[in-house]
Amino acid sequence: MSEVHVAGVGIHPFGRFEDRTITDMGVRAVREALAEADVAQGGFQAAFCATAYGGVASGHKVLSRLGMTGMPIVDVEAGCASGGAALMLGAGAIRAGAYDTVLVFGIEKMPKGMIRSSFFEPWQEESGLAATPAYFALRAQRLMQDSGVTKDDLAQVVVKNRRHGVHNPDAMFRSEVEAAAVLGSRLVCDPLHLWMLCTPNEGAAAVVLRRGGQHSTGAVRVTAAVLRSHLPGSVLNESTPMSGLADESVPAPSTLAATAAYEEAGIGPEDLDVVECQDTDAARELLSYEELGLCAPGGAARLAQEGATALGGRIPVNPSGGLLSKGEPLGASALGQVVTLVHQLRGDAGHNQVTGARVALAHTVGRGANASVVVLTR
User: Fold this and answer.
1) N or C: which end of the chain has fewer CB within 10 A?
2) Closest CA relative to residue 31, chosen from 208, 201, 209
3) Catalytic: which of 80, 198, 277, 295?
4) What is the pLDDT of residues 273-294, one digit of tens each?
5) What is the CATH topology of the domain spanning 126-192+216-377?
């Protein structure tokens, strides 16, 4: 199987941009990635565009603007994991020998306010069962029960990520916050306060993948790119109209994806130097620690309290500031993580550089029913 290397990355900052279309943002990210990879017209053989709200032929619009069409252009949707799914398809196509160079990009311009989704049936919306913060809160309550997490622990996740986001020029929120202010923000759905929830927004990210060759020494490698879906029986996710106690024997999609990714990459969680993980809400990050094997079940609160997941700690998590700082444009979210981690592995992440980073993991969860895990190495 051929090695897959990252030849170039590009990003449009995450935030709100009334003067720009989703296509405008995609063009900027793609141009940056292609320029860094030194890829011109006809230099890639396929493109995969991740988006959830972009509409029909979103990828075609971006590449038409650039005059770069003719090859297969595939739009990919898997909720927040859309970018991870697109990367899996692109990397898999190169490994299979179908292409030498592939463009993968994600774009999104999220509606303001509560996110509506066709994932839910009309009767679920009409019954008030489609409000995602309610599912997040039930999941947080379960984590508090099982892992001893407190509201203070949730607030400290926000404090950590907002501190990391200060030096990220592509983040929406770039100011530190105190735990008291987090806990003083409006209660949305107990135990989650407003500042514990990420902000849906707009942005784009792009990655050029290339088959490894003799001139690829020192390049960042995509060692694993995995997507998994939920198994029947789990009731603590958004695929069900009500949430309650889950069958403990049913592994979460994140655990399924992480296990497969570790096996594919030939590593374990103990080998990771830096992680970008899903922090749609503060509790989601803590749960990710357990689902990704960064700690034993029930150990998330202690791992965070020890400072292990902060910059300078044993396993820094979300040095970009995470979604709590960047906000989340769904289609661009996972690829934004990959862009961040490529910079980490190259050693050019600036103030947020993790010293000596060689192995990195990106993790996203989409609609509670998908999970993507990408392992990058150098």
Assistant:
1) N
2) 208
3) 80
4) 999 999 999 999 999 999 999 9
5) Peroxisomal Thiolase; Chain A, domain 1 (3.40.47)
